[in-house]
Structure formats: structure tokens, C-alpha cells
Amino acid sequence: MVFDASGKLPDGILVGNLNVFGSRDECFLVKASLDNDTYPDLDDQELQFTGRYVPVTVAPAPVPSVGDEEVGGWRQEGDDGLGTIFILPTLGIPTGVIGLCVPSSCSSVDVQTGLQSMLGDNVTVTAFTSEVADQTVDLQPADIVVITLLALVGVLLLVGTALDVWLGYRAERQADKLRMTSVVDSPNSRLPQMLHVVEPKPATMQQRKPPVLANWQRVLVAFSLYTNTKKLLDTSTSKGTLRCIHGIRFFSMTWVLLGHAASQITSYDQNFFVALDWFKTVAFQVIDNATLSVDTFYLLSGVVLAYSFCGAYEKRRKFNVFMFYLHRYLRLTPPMAIMVAINATIFVYFGSGPLWPRMVEPQQDICQKDWWRNLLYIQNFTPIEEECLAQTWYLATDMQMFLVSPVILLPLVWKPLWGALWLGFLTVAFLSLRIAIWSTKNLPPTLFSFNVPDVEAAEEMVTQYAYPWMRCTVWLTGIGLGYLLHRLRGRQITLKPWLWLSGWVAAFAIGISVIFGMIGYQMPWQEFSKAVAVSYGGLNRTAWGVAVGWVIFACVTGYGGPINTFLSYPGFIPLSRLTYAGYLIHINVLTLVDGSVKSTVYVDSYRFTYHLLAHVVVSFAAAMLLSLTFEVPFINLEKIMFEPKKSTAGLSGAPLPPAESDLSSDKLTNSPGPEQEAGQTSKE
User: Who has greater pLDDT, 282 or 662?
Assistant: First the structure.
């Protein structure tokens, strides 16, 4: 049974079936007893053993030098194919995950040492954390702290929701006692429907007001699932809303999810090389270029920041730089901090399987060591494989751009002409720097999955990928567009048909060129020139920002037509509010689903499509959970801390949640998630 449960030579190696998981469940069924007379040196405990499942990988050594003699040296006759899979690394081909079933008395270290000794120095054996059927969880102090924190927040959610519902019920009872009815005509324009009592003595205005809440009540109600969910799902908008941004933000987040989900499924498929045919198709370029979605977020970040900042400054004529930064940090950090804490501690207990240790344990080690980088938003200056929550490199670069934004925004509101010239100079300067880096470092045109003629150049591109000076041109374009929309606020814009039509044609042409421009260069046998690499790599992201910028401009100024109608659909508003939480949690959702598989799968177009769409749905569901527990409640608390002291009334008899303004649809996103007000209290 031990032999049967271990992975053996599979079918289809030549089409990429390199994972041999074996049967993990069968391994757990192994129970053996040795005869005491045959093994007199073993005690009673050692005579009994069960199955231990050990996932291992074998890869070529850094400098392989293997001949036929060495291969034959460890290959033993009569192993019935069990060892045949290990011949791949000696041919320069790394194996996938190989599931071995061994006696429970053996550890992962024992297996790794034994295989390494058997296979020799020409390969590198890695054995991951093993499992047994009756394995128990040994919680560490940090695990207990995180579990306690989650339990505390859970209690606050229950208590806050109960208090919120009770206060609403009490207010409704008070209203019923007053026997109030509505009057259509009201002398106060702000109260289109007044309330009065059908009795000789009408109710006073004080009687009509919901009760003012004590601070402790407001703190508890900040965690109310009832009110926060209602506000999260609210689709109403107010005057001045850039409504098309909600649709753009939702589809950009979906694009991120599709790109990551597509890359992950190849870790356990049976037909990797067959799937390569998909990667060469025109349609797959949409998935392969999903990194452009991040540039859309940079553009939205700049647009919303400039639009809201300039509008708020115009009204208040003052700027508090300390609150500008503090609000931003407090809005972004709590949900990211809890995700870092979970990944550093208890997430490793959420799943199991052949791939699970390989996918989760390295991330846990990194988060335990470098969690502080995330809290300081400097994780983008470490290699991507050494980042805790690797996708948060974007949040770091966006925060770093935010830190220098007053240097760009204040000149725009103080001296508009000089501010515009300064913005233009910075955009051209950083675009020139990007092109120069592409030229001098001989970087490839984009992050090709397979066409990597120069490994060092590709690694350098990955390093440069997350630096703010390499990504800020799109953000600066967004700043300029946001400022332009602010200047045009409330004005009727009239464009001649040939002008707006030319804008749409140019935007579509640029967008299609950026997405599909590398067709014919993505495979290893397809060469590209330096001119192609520099022109595409240096300009593609800025060009994409210009194309999406035109879509926003046309929609806001009345020339969006059916595209604006679609992007402004109210149903996108709640989904767009979930993009920040979705950005933080979607990798964990993907890891939990794909990392817990117990067998390989044959990937065809139907399974691939279903996998992508299912990941989008589940990720947004998980995002709602994260948002309602660690994003919206802490936004509410932050508002209680810093809002001016004034009475807080309720809504429909229930207390008005502190986050009402934050969840209303007229507050726009500066990043993949939190809403933002600019000016004195700019926040994201």
C-alpha cells in the first residue's frame, strides 16, 4: 500500500505532465505492525507505524554535468517505474511535485537526505512539510494572538449589529407612539417631507430627531454588519460623481484576478505544453497583458486624487499635510495588516495537499520576517519572490507617489499655469528615464512568460517593474486628467463630431496596439529587435493610460454614449467598493483553492474558463467579508476620531453610521479600494 500510494511515472510527460501526486488519502490508510521476533531491537512503539505523505521536488543542480553513467548509477532495476520520474532532472528538466508515501517514523528531512544521497549532487532535492493521518496542530504564540484578535473583532461585529438593530427598533417604536404622518409640502427645502402628529399638539422638532448616540455606542455601531452592508450595497450617486470610474475600477480588478488565476492553474495541469497553443492565440493576449490593469489603477489614482484635492482646496483654501498623510495611512493599513498577520500565522492551517506546503510555507516565513516592510509601504524595494503579500507592491508604489503628490498638486491650485508646466515636465522626464532604462539595460518589451532570450535582462525587468519612477508616468497622466476635469466641473463641453470621433478612434487604436502588439514575439523561437523592445516597453504603459484617460474624459464630458451608460451602471458601484479588499485577499483565495488540490487536472477551454470565472466570483465574496470586518469598521472608527464634534443623527430611526460619507458612491477610489476625500482630509 505504501508503494501504491506513492507517485510513479505518469502518462504524458512530453506534454508537461510532470506532477505525480500519488494518493495522499491512501497513504493515510497505511497501518502496519512489525513482528517483535524479527525486529528485536525495536521497542513496542517503533513496531507500529502508519503512512506519512511527503511531497518532494527534484530539480537540476545549478551547474549540471551528468552523463549516462551517473544516470545509470542510481536507477535500479525492478523499481516498477517509481524511480523513473527522477531521471528528468538529470536531463535538465525539473520535476513537478512528487508525492511519496513512507513510514511515519521517517521525517521530511530523512526523505530529503536519502533521496539526495541516492540521486547524487547533479540534482537538488527538496522535501516539504509532511503529513500523517492523525496530525495535530501545534499553535504558536503568534497564532493565538491572531486568533484572539479575530475573535475580538467577531464579538464587536455581533454586539455592534445587535445594538444597531435595537436602536433602530427603539426609534421606530418612538415614532409609532407619536403617530406621525407625512406632509408633502414643506417650508424647508432640505426637508421635503416633514412629520407631524395628528393631535392638537404637534411633535416638536426635537421629538422628530433620532437620538444622539454616546461615543461608546458609535464605536460599537461602527462594526454593525447591518448598516455597513446596507451602505456597501447602496447604488445612489450624488452630483459631481465620476460615475464611469466605478465600472472601470471593477473591470480592472477583474482583469487582475483573471491574470493571476490563469497563471496559477498551470501548477497542477497534466497538459502544460498543449496549453501553450492557447498562449499563442490572439484572444489569450488579453490574459497575458493583464498587468496593464495595474496601470489603469495608477491612472484612476491620479485622476481621483487631483479631482478631489483641487475641489476640496478650492472650497477650504487650506491644506493640513499631517492629516493628508495620516488619513491615507489609517484608511489603507488595517485590512492589509490583518492579511499580513493571517499569512504569517494561521493561513498555513487552512488547507492541505501535495502543493500546499510548497505554496504557503515560503510566504509564511517571509511574512514573519518582513511584515514591517508592508506597514511602512516599502516592500516594492525587495525582490518580488521575497515580498509578503507579493501583490501589495502596487500599494507601496502608490503610497510613495501619494507622499510626493503635494509637490505636484499645490502648484496646480496656487499657480495653475506654472503647475501645469511643472506637471508636464515631470511626465516627460520620467517617461524619458523609463525609455533610457529600457535601452541601456536591454530589457525585453514586456514580461514574456516563455520568450526569455536573456535571463539576466528579464530578471532586471522584474526588479525594475515595481519601482515608482518606472510606474509614475501613468499616475502623472491621471493627475493631469483629474485637474482638467476639475477645471471643467459644471461646464458644458462642446466638441465637434470629428474631434470626439477622432478621440475614440485613437483611444481604441492605442489600446488594441498595446494589448495585441506583441503577437508574434511571445514564443522562444520568435526574436524581437532592440527597437521593438525599447519602443513598446518604454511607451506601452503610458500609452495605455492615455487611451483609458480618453474614455474617462469622454464619459464625464458627455461623449461616452453607450460606453458611458455601461460603465456607469449602478450595479458596479458596490463591486467597485470591494476592489481594495479583493486586491488584498484574492491571492489567498487562489492559493486556498489551487493549493489544496489532491490530483492533477487536464485543462481544456471549458475548465479553464470556469476556473477563471469562479475565481472572480469567490474572490469578490471573500472581499466583502474582509471589507465588512476590517475595512469599513476601521474607516468608521477613523471618522469618529477626526470628525468635528457635532451631533450624529440616525437614518430611518437607526443611528447614522460614521462611514456613511465614506461608503456613498460619490467618493471615488484613488487605489483599488478605499474611498477618498481630498484636500484637508484626503484619504483613500
Answer: 282
